[in-house]
Amino acid sequence: MNIEVEQDVMEVNRAYAADNRLLFRKYGLLTVNIMGSPGAGKTALLEHMLKYMQQHLKVAVIEGDLATAKDARRIAALGVNVIQINTDGGCHLDAKMIARVLPGFYLEDIDLLLIENVGNLVCPAAFDLGEDMRMVVMSITEGGDKPSKYPSAFMTADVVALNKMDILEHTDIDLEQTCADILQINPEALIFETCCRKGEVRGVDILADQLIARVKEKRKAAR
Amino acid sequence: MNIEVEQDVMEVNRAYAADNRLLFRKYGLLTVNIMGSPGAGKTALLEHMLKYMQQHLKVAVIEGDLATAKDARRIAALGVNVIQINTDGGCHLDAKMIARVLPGFYLEDIDLLLIENVGNLVCPAAFDLGEDMRMVVMSITEGGDKPSKYPSAFMTADVVALNKMDILEHTDIDLEQTCADILQINPEALIFETCCRKGEVRGVDILADQLIARVKEKRKAAR
């Protein structure tokens, strides 16, 4: 019986995700589902990508958190349209939560919708939000064994950002082995090395350029 | 209907947790449920606590992971009795998983059972395993906003280890504010500052002494 209900939950989610996807296609906007552990640096990476991309694209953001609107305030401070979803303890965003907040945006005015999921390297990966792309942000301080120990998130990631590269020398991570492990789980993954600490921002523009290129591809396909 | 079934799952878990707790009381052993994000440093902290505690106590370990037996191998290398539970993608340990592996130990020979949960700062907190104590391990590289953004884990923690203190100067965390935030969520929490990198191990003995004291208390109460 438990299993049946779980299938129900997943079926409901798939239906909402399909609706979201249709809506995103209708308005020709690209959507990215951003996942990673708490403290991987997702919001900081978002902030710096937004600063760079704002010149090129109209971007909007959905922030998923258990509690507080701290992340949404950081994004709003950049003048970016943002909606915060608080899951009230829930461990992931689902497609219905996204569907519910979409009317809060003028979708026709958006090129790129970035969705920052709840900080959790496990559960979010199981829930399709209707997105075009998935990005996993992993802090190198988490250690190189994380891809093989948490394969589900990496398995479906189009893009992996290895973040906090500024403190590489203060960690024991074997970067080459970590990349090999990611590519063994997911040979299609594009891996970027980033850091976005005050005074030391690296790799963010290259990652943002990748997303900008995808936005243009999707627009071209939509014509 | 979903809610009913969720209550069922929680009720089943409570029943198994109560059985586990009875068993732990019968054999007079203390159990600690160790939680934290992926890469918080739970296993490294365990390794160093075990090295210190092995002189004083008989310790056994349960390792919870989505996949691989990497952590169990690290613990076994210290000559410590360890059982690995792979959840096959599941985001937390539950009391039934623990009940199933307990026959693999000689409980009468154990003073302290350390249970390392799946790396996840959200879901494990909802599942009582029958443990006496909860420890949250948080890497200071995760940033100081984590307690307020992920309150559920901190709310029920007896002990919080702020780990990776060796790279404090390479982060932007406000340690005093972080501790204040933890104590606002949970005024009873004991906070320890630790690091356990090769060549720089600090605070682990003080934390381990705290657990050793609790083992002795429990034994005294059992008599």
Identify the notable features of this structure and list them briefly.
homodimer, 223 residues, alpha/beta, seven-stranded parallel β-sheet, two-stranded antiparallel sheet, 8 helices, 9 strands, globular
Please describe the topology of this protein.
The structure is a homodimer of 223-residue chains.
Chain A: H1 2-26, E1 30-35, H2 42-53, E2 59-65, H3 70-76, E3 81-86, H4 95-101, E4 112-116, E5 133-139, H5 146-149, H6 151-155, E6 159-163, H7 175-185, E7 190-193, E8 195-197, E9 200-202, H8 204-222
Parallel strand pairs in A: 1-4, 1-5, 2-3, 2-4, 5-6, 6-7
Antiparallel strand pairs in A: 8-9
Helix pairs in contact in A: 1-4, 2-8
Rg for CA atoms of chain A:
17 Å
The profile of the biggest β sheet of chain A is: 7 strands, parallel
How large a portion of the residues of chain A is in β-strands, by DSSP E?
A: 15-25%
Q: How large is the count of helical segments of chain A? A: 8
Strand tally of chain A, please?
A: 9
Helix content percent band of chain A = 40-55%
| Mean pLDDT score of chain A | 95
Distance between the termini of chain A: 46 Å
Structural class of chain A: alpha/beta
Question: What is the quaternary state of this protein?
Answer: homodimer
The helix/strand series of chain A, from N terminus to C terminus, equals: HEHEHEHEEHHEHEEEH
Uncertain regions spanning at least 5 consecutive residues of chain A:
none
Largest interface: A-B, 42 and 42 residues
The gross shape of chain A turns out to be globular
Strand ordering within the main sheet of chain A: 3-2-4-1-5-6-7
